[in-house]
Amino acid sequence: MPQVNMTVNGKAASGEVEGRTLLSHFLREDQGLTGTHIGCDTSQCGACVVHVNGEAVKACTMLAVEAEGADVATIEGQANADGSLNVIQQAFQDHHGLQCGFCTPGMVMSAAALLKDNPKPTEAEVRHYLDGNICRCTGYHNIVKAIMAASGQDVGAIAAE
């Protein structure tokens, strides 16, 4: 079996994997990072979004061996150094951007990628960017509001749907 080596949330991670092992399964089963959720295994729901070399990817459609030597960031690595919630996570909490929480890790990771590339997105841009993430509980309104708040924008004028 191939050996895979990568950096996950700033720490060296390695393990023997079958060639067909998905990155999502390697992170969850071999590394114990269960915040990367598996909702569909077909790249439809976005619950498994992680960052690989700074880019948002759906870990259920990437093989672990494809991440050889990569820098991988998961939801577990998003908190501040002191363990407190980062600005995006705090905005999700403050603006009720989650209900059951299953989609939340993928939403936060997608939001982080969006805000890295577009620090002040419009509401339409946030909605478009989240097109690959499914939430069955919230109706997205508060998720969008949370992401816009995390970007430092005033969300008081965003009307409820």
Strand content: 5-15%
Low-confidence stretches: none
Q: Total strand count, please?
A: 5
Overall structural class, as computed from helix and strand content, comes to alpha+beta
Overall pLDDT: 95
The gyration radius over C-alpha positions equals 16 Å
Q: What is the helix/strand order?
A: EEHEEEHHHH
Cα distance spanning the termini = 51 Å
Shape, per Cα inertia axes: elongated
Q: Overview of this structure, please?
A:
The structure is a single chain. The protein is an alpha+beta fold and 161 residues long. 29% of the residues lie in helices and 14% in strands. The chain is built from 5 helices and 5 strands. The chain has helices at residues 23-30, 87-94, 104-117, 123-129, 141-150, and strands spanning 3-8, 11-16, 49-52, 55-58, 71-73. The chain has a 5-stranded mixed sheet, sandwiched between helices. A hairpin with a 2-residue loop joins β3 (49-52) and β4. α2 packs across α5. It is elongated. The N and C termini lie far apart (51 Å). 43% of the residues are buried. The mean pLDDT is 95.
